[in-house]
Design goal:
Cytochrome Bc1 Complex, Chain A, domain 1; 2 domains; six-stranded mixed β-sheet; 19% strand
């Protein structure tokens, strides 16, 4: 992987990265525009996502989404888009002979969208229905709720989809203005993996990025550890089970300790042999499952523990979680446990890196957007195998501090448990 990576920085500020795969008959490609929910003004919440929907509804050369779909169906390929906190991505997976067409279709959509009023009104209804679907999906809703406790009133926790009020404010002219001023070539990227010719791709996508504004990349407010967490956030719902999420701010994607952070999550709650699973499920029978998760991003990181339990068991479950968190600070991970977990982590890394062009595309994407450089598989494996018990203990002490912890609770209506007492049980575990 990455043996044939080539990267070109264009004069208009965009970046083109390709990875040629010998013997491949397909291509994965994507345009990345540096615009997402964290880069929006508060009054523009959800506009990046709305623009993403509209860009694929018709362009100067391909004036209808039906035309786009018909063209892509000829290749049996996939063409779609997605919006995140910092990026809007337009991507395709096609046979090698369909690559030029896919670049042309997506490129024209990005550079010359029509934004027809009739389509704007239709997509507004679609997005409002999407909001209802998210509201009805407890896991996603609770994730956003917990995020708001870890970064209260910070754009990080702003919903990507926006609010009914902000979406109602969009009209054709405001959307056109948003596209012209926010879709910039500065900081934009194009990534392709598979049967690709780098020089040919550079020539093709340069025309696309050249049609965009060359204004500076839209800025966003950096995450700062000085921004205080909210110790407890609680909601009451019509459901039988209580849910909790213990969240800590962690290390960023450019911090080499991100590997140790992921290993801590594996030790604590990665699978059925992890510490929390053995304690909360196997020994005490309090939950069907319990998870620990770690993520490292451009300017922030997060570590969390979550589970669903009965309302009368949540205090005990939180106390057990607190105990296991303290244990990682109190004494180093044992040699045998560390060896097992390191080997599993390294093995998964090797398997994923060898798996497919899809994984290679995703890793290249992550390297360029978050790590800001190519992290080769052998380098990653060496870092994983080099993690020490001392390093894990020091990182646990840094992350699992009371002032760095936000407890999100979703409790059944009528639950008598005090949220403050539940946090106390966690901290005293």
């Amino acid at each position: 992987m990455f043996e044939n990576v080539k990267i070109t920085k264009l004069e208009n500020g965009a970046c083109v990265a390709t990875s040629a795969r010998a013997g491949s008959n397909a291509c994965r490609l994507g345009f990345y525009i540096p615009m997402g929910s964290r880069r929006e003004k508060a009054s523009e919440a959800g506009w990046s996502h709305f623009a993403e929907h509209m860009v694929l509804q018709g362009s100067k050369k391909y004036p209808s989404s039906k035309i786009v779909n018909r063209i892509m169906e000829r290749f049996g390929g996939q063409c779609d888009a997605a919006t995140s906190k910092l990026w809007t991505k337009y991507y395709a997976h096609v046979p090698a002979y369909g690559m030029s067409t896919a670049i042309d279709v997506l490129g024209d959509a990005i550079a010359h969208p029509l934004f027809l009023q009739s389509e704007v009104e239709k997509e507004r209804r679609v997005i409002l229905e999407e909001m209802k679907m998210i509201d009805d999906g407890p896991s996603r809703e609770f994730y956003d709720f917990a995020q708001a406790g870890l970064w209260p009133r910070h754009p990080i926790c702003r919903p990507i989809i926006g609010t009914p009020k902000s979406i109602a404010a969009i009209d054709t002219e405001s959307l056109k203005s948003f596209h012209v001023t926010r879709y910039t070539s500065r900081g934009a990227m194009f990534i392709a993996v598979g049967n690709v010719d780098h020089d040919e791709i550079v020539e093709r996508v340069n025309h696309v990025f050249g049609a965009l504004s060359d204004a500076p990349e839209p800025r966003y407010r950096p995450a700062s550890l000085d921004w205080p967490v909210k110790p407890v956030v609680v909601e009451y719902c019509d459901k039988a089970q209580a849910t909790f999420k213990i969240s800590f701010r962690g290390v960023t994607g450019v911090d080499p300790r991100r590997y140790a952070q992921t290993l801590l999550a594996s030790i604590l709650g990665g699978d059925s042999s992890s510490r929390l699973y053995r304690s909360i499920r196997d020994r005490h029978g309090l939950a069907y499952s319990v998870y620990a998760d770690a993520g490292s991003y451009t300017d922030h990181g997060a570590f969390s523990v979550s589970a669903g339990v009965s309302a009368d068991s949540i205090e005990k479950a939180l106390s057990l979680c607190g105990h296991e968190l303290k244990e990682l600070i109190r004494k180093p991970v044992g040699r045998a446990e560390l060896a097992r977990r390191r080997e599993k982590f390294a093995s998964l890394s090797i398997i994923l890196n060898e798996d497919s062009g899809e994984v290679e595309y995703s890793v290249l994407d992550m390297c360029l957007k978050v790590y800001k450089k190519i992290v080769r598989p052998e380098e990653e494996e060496a870092r994983i195998r080099g993690i020490t018990a001392t390093e894990l203990q020091a990182l646990a002490a840094e992350i699992f501090r009371p002032e760095n912890c936000s407890l999100a609770l979703s409790l059944p209506k009528g639950c008598k448990a005090s949220p403050e007492k539940l946090r106390e049980a966690l901290l005293n575990g």
